[in-house]
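Appendix B, Record 12. Input sequence as logged:
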Amino acid sequence: MKVFRIDLTSWTASFRYPNMISGFQPSLRMPPISTIWGLISAAAGRMASPEHHEFAYIFRYECMAIDLETIYQIQGDKGKPTLAAKSNIMRREFLAFNSLSLYLRDEQLAQAFQAPYFPLLLGRSSDLASVESVTTVDLQPVESLNLAGTVVPFAGYRLAAPIQALPTHFTESFPRRNVGTQPFYLLDWQRRGVYKLAQPGWRDPELETDLFWYTSDFFDKGDKTR
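Logged structural output:
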């Protein structure tokens, strides 16, 4: 199967666990699907969502570190914010020396990364990413998958991996609303070789990595919020 592979790199990346907003802020070891589609939307300059596209991705990182960050907490009065604020210190995880390989079948979306409309981020506004290349690759079919550096839906699969509820994307309205929240397996790149799935799929022969390929059928069945 011929697809487009977009290779990106970043010095830092951070993917916040949902609902963890105070105290220590850990980072997911890979971007959720919603981050991938935020990245694609930034490159295209328009809102993109996964229901009408096919894709896969692999995220790699070299190490993890903890940063001390100053935050400012806005004080409220009867449920409304005021001009009063106090500073605090928070410990925050981040991933360092990262690379992301994103696979798309849509040529228009893939070519948008040649001249991104908005800055590309792997997490927060400080986690800037750069595009190394956009190439065409021919994926090879395989009978089983050895996966890492991605997420796999919990429903229908059995893997020995952490599970976290994550949205697939967000609405275009403001404030944005999370869409398609469901449990996913979190497959850490540092544990490559552990996550084996007895299912046919695709392999990138150039990078020697297997891919969990998402089709529009998955979102039609898995998104229960629409």
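Confidence is low (pLDDT under 50) at residues 222-226.
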